[in-house]
Structures are given as C-alpha cells and as structure tokens.
Amino acid sequence: MSLLSGTMGRLFLLCLTLISVFLAPALASQSYVVYMGAPLQSSLQVTRTNQHYVMLSSVMGSELAAEEAMLYIYKNFNAFATKLTPEQAALLAEREDVVSVVPNKKYQLHTTRSWEFLGLEDAFGNVADDSLWKKSNYGEDVVIGLLDSGVWPESKSFSDTGLGPIPASWKGKCETGDQFGPEYCNKKLIGGKYFLKGFEAEEGPLNTTETGDYRSARDSDGHGTHTASTAGGNFAPGANTLGLANGTAKGGAPHARIAAYKVCWPSIFGGGCYTSDILAAFDEGVEDGVNVFSVSLGSDPPLDPFFLDGLAIGSFHALQNGITTVASAGNAGPSPGSVSNVPPWMITVAASSIDRDFRAFVVLGDNVTVQGKSLTGEKLDEQKFYPLIDAASAPAPGVNASLSMFCLPGSLDEEKVKGKIVACLRGISARVDKSFQVKLAGGIGMILSNAKQNGNKLMADPHFLPSLMVTYEDGQKVYKYIEATKNPIATILPTKTVLGVKPAPVLSAFSSQGPNTLVIDINKPDITAPGEYILAAYTEARAITDLPGDNRKVKYNIISGTSMSCPHISGVSASLKSLHPNWSPAAIRSAIMTTASQKDNAEEAITEASAKVSTPFGVGSGFVNPNRAADPGLIYDISFTDYFNFFCALGYTKKNIKTITGQSFECPEDVPKVSNLNYPSITVSELAGSQEIMRTVTNVGSPSSIYKVSIISPPGVMVEISPPTLSFSALEEKKSFKVKITKVSDTKDYVFGTYTWSDGTYSVRSSIIVKTLAAS
Ligand SMILES: *[C@@H]1O[C@H](CO)[C@@H](O)[C@H](O)[C@H]1NC(C)=O
Ligand SMILES: *[C@@H]1O[C@H](CO)[C@@H](O)[C@H](O)[C@H]1NC(C)=O
Ligand SMILES: *[C@@H]1O[C@H](CO)[C@@H](O)[C@H](O)[C@H]1NC(C)=O
Ligand SMILES: *[C@@H]1O[C@H](CO)[C@@H](O)[C@H](O)[C@H]1NC(C)=O
Prior knowledge:
The protein is of the alpha/beta class. 24% of the residues lie in helices and 26% in strands.
C-alpha cells in the first residue's frame, strides 16, 4: 500500500517507485495470510495457536521450520501470517479447514485553517456552543488509531494540555523501540506500536542507516505525524511552515487520544505497507480499544475482491467491534474509476481545496506585476530591483540552451546567473529542484513558468529561494520583457497567505473518482474534505523535501492528498462517536453524508479543478459539514445481516464470506440486489425497465416528526418514493420506504439526481446515480 499524499516532499519516493516498477517481477510474494475462519472466541487462543503450528509444520516439514516462518498469529481473526513458497501456499489452500490463503500484498501510503473553513470555529478561533466540537467536548473520550508511518511524539500537537485522565477502557501501550517507548507518550499520545514482520518478509531487514527510519513507532517519513495531528492534534498556537499559514494548528477532535500503529516502511524498493502488518495493526487496535481507525493508504485499481484485500478484512473486523474505519479515496484522479478503498463499511474520503492561497508577486522593471504561487518564506528586499535573466541564455559551458532553460541540475552557468533572478521553464525536473539549482549557481531568486501544455494550474512549493510559479501566459510576459529589454530587472515580493479565496472548496484534480470498479452499485467516494495545502505536524527526522542538500527541517509541513482529507473525517467521526456513543459506524457515515453541503463559498455547485460541476463520483455526497452531522434527524443504519446479504448479492462463496467475517452464513434463496444495502446514496448502474429499492431510516431527531420527501429525478429517469410521508412518534423508530426508478429514455452515460426527507427542521439528502441499459 502507499501513502496517499500529494506532490510535495515525495520526490524521493517517486523516484523509488520508478525503480520498484522495474524490480517488481522479481518481488513475487514471499509470505501469505492463512485464514481458517472459525468463530472468534479468544478462550480458544492457546489451542488455536497450537493448531496453527501443527498445520504449518505439515507443509514446512518440521516444527522448527514452522516456528521460523511464522510471522503473526492473530488474536481476533482465526488466521496466521507466514513465509511460504507458492507451492506450500497452494498445499495449504487445498485443506478443508483453510478458507483462504491471501498473498502479502503491498499497499502504498496515499491543518490549521481547514477547521474554520468547516465551520467549527470562527476566524478568531472562537467555537460556537452549537458546534460539534463543543457538543462532543472536543472528542476527549475517544481514541483514534492511525495505520500509517508512525508518529513524531515531540510535536506540540501531541501535548496533553487540557486533557483528563486516559479513558479507563484503554488497553494499549507505547511499545519500546528505537527512540520510542512509554516515556515518549502522555495523555494525548496514548499508544504507539510497530508492525514490521510482513514488510521484512518481502523486502528484507529494515536498514535504519540507509532509510533513516526507526525500528519503533517513531515516524521518519512525516506522513503519519501529519495525519495523526490532522485527526486528533491538540491546539498548537504559532504553527507554520517556513513562516507561512501561521496560526493555531489543531485536529478534527482536538482532545481525542491518538494511537499510532506503524505499518508503512521505507526501503530501496520503494517501501510500503503490507497486508499481514495491516491485519496485525487492526487486530491489536481492536483489542486496545481504538474507536476510529484512520487509514490514509491504499492500492489503486484494479481492485481485489474484499476477501483478498487486507484493508477490507481488517476494517470489517473493526466494524464487527463497532469501530469506524475512515480511508482515503486515492490520488489517481480525475480519471473515472480510479477510486480505491471501496468497502461499504468504510467511509471513503475525496479531497478538495480550502479557501486559502499562498500568493507571491514578481514586479518587472517596467512596473508590470505578475501574480503567482509559492510556499517559500524566503524574502528579497522588496524596495530593490535585481538583474533578471532567462535560463536559456545562461547555459553552463558545453550545455545546450534547450536544457538550461529548464534549470536542470548542472545546466546553469554560475558566471551568468550569480546575483540574478532566473526565469526557468517547468518540465523534466522537479519544480523545487529548479530553485535549488539556481541557488547552487549563485542566483538569488526564481520565476518558474508553466510551459504551454501546463496551462493555468499553479502549485505552491517550498522553494529554496524567493521564488514563485506563474501561468504560461504570465510567463510569456516575463520572457517577452527580458527579450525586449537591454538590462532586465525585477523583484519578487514576499509570499502572502490569502484567506477567503473563492470558489472553495474545489475538488482536487488528484482526488480519485468513481464509478466504483469493484461494486458498481455502491457509490464511492462517500464525502469530500480538505486535502490541499494542509498544515499539520511533521517529522523532524527529514527535511521538507527529499532533495539532497535540503536541510530545512520543519515542525509543521503543508502537504496535499486524500491522505490529508481522510483524517479530517476521522476527527469528525471521533467527535460524533463521542457525542453519540451508541451510533454504529454506518450511522456515523450516514450522518456525515446526508448533511454534507453541495455548494461552495460562492453559493454555486461545487466544481472540479477543470471548472465543471462535480458529480457524486468526485465529491460523493458533498463537502463535510460537521456541525450539521452532529444532528442529522434521520440515519440509514446497516445491520450485520444486511452485510451478509450484500456478500451474497456479490456472489461470494461460503468460504469467501468466512474469510471476511469469520462466520458461516447461509445465503437466502432470494438474494436482495446490491442496491438494497441500506446506504445513504442509491446507485443503479444497469437500469432496464424499472427497479425497486428499499431503504429504512431511523429517527434520531425530534421524537415526534413528519418528514416529506422531495425528489430531483436524474434526466431520462423517473424516481418515485412511497410512502412520500414518514411519521415518527418516537426516537429510534424505524420507517421503510420504496424507491422506484424507471427508465424514460436511454441515458447513455451516468445521470445524477437526489431525494431529500425534510420535516421543516432537518433535511436528509441522498444522491441517486443511474445508468440505463441501452435498448437492444
Ligand atoms: C545498510 O545500508 C548501508 C548504507 O547503504 C550499508 O552500508 C549497510 O551494509 C546496510 N546494512 C545491511 C545490514 O544491509
Ligand atoms: C505567528 O503568529 C503568532 C501569534 O499571532 C506570532 O506571535 C508569531 O510571531 C507568528 N509567527 C510567524 C512566523 O509569523
Ligand atoms: C515604476 O514605478 C515607480 C514608482 O511608482 C516609478 O518611480 C518608476 O519610474 C516606474 N518605472 C517605470 C519604468 O514606469
Ligand atoms: C540544442 O538542442 C536542440 C534541440 O534538441 C538542437 O536542435 C540544437 O541543434 C542543439 N544545439 C547545439 C549547439 O547542440
């Protein structure tokens, strides 16, 4: 699995990913998870453990060999992880008492201002009495478990100021290892464990010298620290990156407790997060007493069926224990069908922008001012002008100008560049590396211009010099000024953090999109949350970028990705769990989805980066509205039987179902369709004539209330709901209704509509997503 973060600071990993592609064929799985799927009774643990060794010895030839090969014996799954040859794996899979043998697959790892943007506090940091934060006491009694790259315990975001005693039910701990242990933990950071055996079985021993990582829950990557502090970081005033985005950093549930389960590791093969380690983390997290799992990692399509997907199995186990799992949708957007982490028992999170921008300006000698973006805190004397040069006219001796124009490593002539602002063209090398090359050659600033094919899309990067990125058109103005002027000059004004930018949110271009390629009739992602330029705590074990020579370490870093949007929802889920301890994971997701907003801060429908209006494939139900989610009126709950019927609807065998659930289930003769899972959205991907779908809502609003439905049918489709009125006379009362969807004309592609239950106070909205079968 890979961490799902954006472009910044991941250059090194990107390079390594390329290497790993070439090496991939040589890296066939060396280890497997073997499932027996008997009932979950921990009293049988000792007997079971013996049985596992006996079973493994039977294929390994000896008990000693079995002991050496065994990686994990899980406590809550009747399963173990072990090294095996493919032949041994096949032998085990044939056994009657084994329900499946799953390869140890690799998954990849996929803020201050963002909370105000979500309406949890005002611009002055004041929190309203009716906000989810106040109502939930900032999530103080809830534990968020992060499956990630670990945690940097010294961060101010993990201070336990203002927190009461650790919840009595907590059974976890901070496991001793490299520079980590109980002495690094407190009433905020209450757990830290590491799971490495599955990784080492595949990629060899962790080399701490080569990777700079720690054999412990300590985070050398930064990703885990960032996600943990976004989900549950305490109030940390004065947090900023290189002086930018200065403010009080805090998480989605600022007083929630944090437990770090380190499952992602670096290596020269690219590193990653392995199934057997992930399952071990879920296994222990459930035992420890985690309330919400936050999982910012995944594997892009093609997606494995749920019974082969460690994240799906682990999170189903969490669900069986009443624990919510929140996961990132992936960074493979905007192409259709790119969404990952699609089990209907997870909350799947897309990413979008917030209303903050990092603006910088260059003033040319003719007083023409050009606006761009930057994340650097470095400044020039803005009263002064400096000589300006096109990098194309400053190639190092023997270097072609067609290379130096991109400011590639070693391509610039120090004689010509020294003391000047240099104009570089985007392309070929990493954006931040260009300002690094200008700095190495003695330059004092950089203007990075988009090439024609890059258009207007700008990125704010942590450059090494006073620098900014400008659009293609604006770049042309700079180049033309240089060409037309004998002694061109310019100055770069300091980067400013600008708030109130409109429109926001805008769905991030990288955010993975539906349709769901595994279960087409369950829409994913479910929801969108802030995921661009998110400021949160970081590791101090590495610099802000991975460029050799970068030694700028920061306590807080700004990064982008669905990895960053996921923990926003984890924090919100933790607060909701604190406010409504009896709500199921399905109820929490329902509250988040049916109360989401579809409008941006310009009161228009939320758009994508391309400016077209986003559909539920991009934003799911919309942008999270935490204060409304606290009090949704009605919820769509899902029972265990519903999930079993769902597996039957997918055509899963008894063994498949046992692998996921640990239980035997007899599918009914008349299997309900996938669309009938009581989800807060409705998807019908192959509508022929008409289809009837059942839904059931539970009253959690006013004891006595009458809800009326309003429907916006998708174009070419007619939607009818009966009964159109639901009367409740008590809380927890359930009412069912029928949604009849009828084809009127061929829709060719997907079409979208909504239905909303309202009682005058509450408004409970669901998306309808339909594609008709073409008439033959
Ligand atoms: C770890 O990496 C370093 C640096 O590449 C190398 O010198 C060392 O031999 C490696 N150690 C092991 C145990 O592989
Ligand atoms: C950040 O803000 C705090 C409080 O407003 C202020 O004291 C501090 O100097 C600021 N830091 C930077 C780097 O701007
Ligand atoms: C640019 O503006 C400054 C200050 O307003 C002025 O002194 C200078 O003459 C202007 N330069 C040009 C080339 O217009
Ligand atoms: C520089 O590169 C361009 C494009 O690749 C090529 O057309 C040109 O001949 C090269 N010039 C020299 C001096 O090598």
